[in-house]
Design a protein that fits this description.
By secondary structure, the chain is of the alpha/beta class. It has 14 helices and 17 strands. The chain has a nine-stranded mixed sheet with strand order 9-10-8-7-6-5-4-1-11, with helices on both faces. The chain starts with 6 loop residues before the first strand and ends with a helix. The chain binds iron/sulfur cluster.
């Protein structure tokens, strides 16, 4: 192993004001006042337990996700960030993102988070359509487009992402495009536009839903993709579109098979060691275990034979050529080991290669699961 991958930090705050019926994230309803200070103290202890596995690397990006982390007071988040800085070096001007729910997105919240150094905001809008918001059981008062525009201008916010979904129950192609047009009118730097998938362990999974058929979904995607591209957004990953210079550095680190510390209930970490071993750490999901000091649920080494799949599962999501030499730098596997699989993927039209790079073809992007199955 010549190079250790770049390092990021993910922080999970699991509480929300409600549980959305499509959501399979580790989130729970905030029933009473959350003991923020207690949880933050546990996050710091959790971090300290993992630090020795980072081999003195510097953190490049921080992502505070959930749940709805913006439910926390900015003072608690500030205390956490200060404590992190005392324990691990962070690059100057690191990308620091926080997830916000449109019902908790107020001028004061943005201002306070901005003051403590958060420089990227990710807002989970999902849809603006009132009928669809009801189906998604998101009845909380949402910030209006006009209010959002005023906040963006007065605070000069210049790195915003909106999460928006398509393929919702009863959604027409026009509904989906109307949501996208509204988002585009806000001129965000980044848009995560993703298809609703019905996951087990969600309320939607056991409900009979009137979902758009495959043909309608395909048309939604084609029209939406055209609209985004015409409006200056480049698709750089399956669901990620951004203006030039605003790709999400934190997510890119995951997809480039970089390393990350994961702290908080249910967070995952991946930490490569100097001897080439890749360690994965999964934290306990329940707030009860976690706030009783039981942070780690599992720590294991990724077997060598699984490393190619893990590597390509990430790297092939990015829509740009990837350097072949990175495979040997970031895993224990060399190009020679996986050559027969690569040849198969090329023959089947999923992958193209040059002397130094591999890249997913259009066919590979549309049949990514089939491509990954080869590994
Ligand atoms: S607000 Fe977000 S994290 Fe919370 S339940 Fe809804 S989708 Fe999941």
């Amino acid at each position: 192993m010549k190079t250790l991958p770049p390092l990021s930090l993910y922080i999970h705050i699991p509480w929300c004001t409600q549980k959305c019926p499509f959501c399979d994230f580790n989130s729970c309803i905030k029933k009473k006042e959350i003991e923020e200070k207690k949880y933050i103290n546990h996050l710091i202890l959790d971090l300290k337990q993992d630090i020795h596995l980072t081999t003195n690397r510097t953190i490049n990006t921080i992502f505070i996700g959930g749940g709805t982390p913006s439910l926390f007071n900015y003072k608690s988040i500030n205390f956490l960030l200060q404590e992190i800085k005392k324990n691990v070096p962070i690059v100057p001007l690191a990308e620091i993102s926080i997830e916000m729910n449109p019902s908790t997105a107020t001028y004061q919240k943005f201002l306070n988070f901005q003051k403590i150094g958060i420089n990227r905001f990710s807002i989970g809008v999902q849809t603006f359509n009132k009928k669809l918001l009801n189906i998604l059981q998101r009845q909380d008062e949402q910030i209006s487009i006009k209010e959002m525009k005023n906040i963006i201008i007065s605070l000069k916010l210049n790195n915003i992402n909106y999460d928006i979904m398509y393929g919702l129950p009863y959604q027409s192609i026009d509904d989906a495009l109307s949501d996208l047009k509204k988002i585009i009118s806000l001129k965000p730097q980044h848009i995560s536009w993703y298809q609703l998938t019905i996951e087990p362990n969600t309320i939607f999974y056991v409900k009979k839903l009137n979902l758009p058929n495959t043909n309608t979904i395909w048309k939604m995607w084609k029209e939406g993709n055209k609209l985004l591209s015409k409006s200056g957004y480049k698709q750089y990953e399956i669901s990620s579109y951004a203006q030039k210079g605003y790709f999400c550095q934190h997510n890119l680190n995951y997809w480039n098979f970089g390393d990350y510390i994961g702290i908080g209930c249910g967070a995952h970490g991946k930490l490569t060691q100097k001897n080439g071993n890749i360690i994965r750490i999964i934290k306990n999901k329940t707030t009860f275990d976690y706030t009783h000091g039981k942070y780690r649920n599992k720590l294991y080494m990724v077997p060598k034979k699984h490393q190619p799949l893990e590597y390509f599962m990430n790297i092939l999501r990015i829509f740009k050529p990837t350097l072949k030499k990175k495979l040997a730098q970031y895993t224990c596997v060399t190009e020679h080991h996986i050559q027969p699989i690569i040849q198969k993927a090329i023959t089947q039209g999923y992958l193209k290669e040059t002397l130094y790079t591999w890249e997913t073809t259009e066919k590979g992007k549309n049949f990514l699961n089939d491509l990954l199955e080869l590994f």
